[in-house]
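Title: Prediction job returns without error message
Component: structure pipeline
Severity: low
Priority: P3
Assignee: unassigned

Description:
Job completed but the reporter wants confirmation the result is attached to the right record. Sequence as submitted:
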Amino acid sequence: MMMTTAKKWLAVYTRPRWEKKVFQLLTDRGFEAYCPLNKVRKKWSDRVKVVEEPLFKSYVFVNTDEEGRSRVRMCNGVVNFVYWLGKPAIIQEKDISTIKRFLNDYENVTTEQLTVMPSQEIEVTGGALMDSKGKVLTVKGKRVEVLLDFMGIKLVAFVDKQNVRIIRNTAQ
């Protein structure tokens, strides 16, 4: 008896500048794929043109089940799936829909990494301290020193920068 698993949206990491090619190859192989494209005005010396560029460099989203993962991985231009806690990172359907609606309404969108700075209030989004709230003391490379309050006791912990979400920006 073969057990089928539900399809889920997964993030695929691609070779640099291969997003559109990977999207087309996945679509040609029967996968439901999504490559968010941003309309950007490009100016050359003789003209201005609107071109579509991938919103997320080197990423494409694919809706597949466990059985389809190996076929996705074998697709030319695919480096691997994006992993979170040892498993392929699942992207919620609502997040895909939000990106589609957003790009439908806006052009010339930019993305940027949030900068974590001392005195910002944060929430830990991964690891043993997940869901804990605290205040950033220092930022050292990819690690953040966070002051946490547990049952009236102040704890200081180092957390990976990728595992924090800014709640309130109180930095000056």
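Comment from assignee: result matches the submitted record. The domain at 8-105 is CATH 3.30.70.940 (Alpha-Beta Plaits).
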